[in-house]
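[job 4471] stage=fold_predict status=RUNNING
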Amino acid sequence: MFPSRIKFKKDLPDTPGVYLMKDAREKILYVGKAVSLKRRVAQYFTKPHGQHIEEMMPYIRRIDFVDTASAIEALILEANLIKHYRPKYNIEQKDNKSFLYLVITKEPFPKPVLMRGHDLPDDSAKKFKAIFGPYTSGVSLRAALDLVRKIFSWSTCSPGQRRACFYVHLKLCPGVCIGAIDQKAYGKIIHDLIAFFSGKKDKILEAYKRDMKRAAKEKRFEEAGNLRNKIFALEHIQDVAVLKREDDGEPINKNIFGRIEGYDISNTSGTSSVASMVVFENGAPAKSEYRKFKIKTVIGSNDVASLQEVIARRFRHDAWRRPDLLLIDGGLPQVHAVESTLELLNIKIPLVGLAKGAERKRNDLIFGSSINAEFRTLCLEHHTLLEKVRDEAHRFAIMYHRKLRSRSMI
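[job 4471] inference complete, writing structure tokens
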């Protein structure tokens, strides 16, 4: 399977980990991550890759690896190794400043924020509590953060609110918004989050086990139970999907199965106008992420203007995860309108319209100007999924519209 010139210290395992490709002088050329080291490394010699990888292949003489307990730990280790060694074929893969970084803000209640390299200030080491990266896949990093937040429930809101934020109810925010946690206790959560992304999971587990025994001995059983649950979650992270598409050799930057947001407008003769935002993640509805909007600035039936209002309002919410694809129910006028709104906001996200036509029987894809030929092909291949997103947005908008109309009639 492998050319005879390539040496391995031992057989590649069918487990998550990081692989390091080296030249004849043991210089690291490339660092990658995988759900299955055995399968992923073999793909380099059986499937075509991008130009920079094809250029590297003749120079490879040795492949080392580090196996990890989970895909998330492989993701973290890959970023830390790229940062340390700066391998030529990782850095040349794209402009280094366009890589994604995980930044922990420096404030009374710090937040994890994703930033591109070109957005990091020159004095970022002083401005931020911690910086991790570069990460080669934004989709994988966001998926990892979603999983980790169930263990380290950080906040993305501001203190002093009268009502608890949406994430408090999902147990993904400890209640900074309503003063349910003080700075010291919250600081411990952020400390553990930083330790996790520094690759220190084992040390976190040791500390949690020690604290759990102490809490149980002192009869603080609720605290001991919470720690026990965190220990179990850290030891049994179900995260294969974090890297699965990459491990199958599918380029992440062409993926539409990350977060798709679908939008639709509903009204009756221009009254009770509303909009829906539905979310599909990894090809399935994520109903806890759905949002609904009352149209505030548009009078009468004007779907184009209503979409512009909704998109502008949606992207005021920095705490909401950015989509990998925007899907709108509409044709060319709607696509142009949303594109112009995104341009004003200086936001670049792939945009697709799905024109329904009379009796909702047409399903023509209308592509935004930023979508290239390869992405078009991918959308066409997964046309059925995009129809499902559109239909779900339509259903959710109608449901909210009927609810408002029934209230107004009463």
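[job 4471] summary: The CA atoms of residues 38 and 369 lie 39 Å apart.
[job 4471] exit 0
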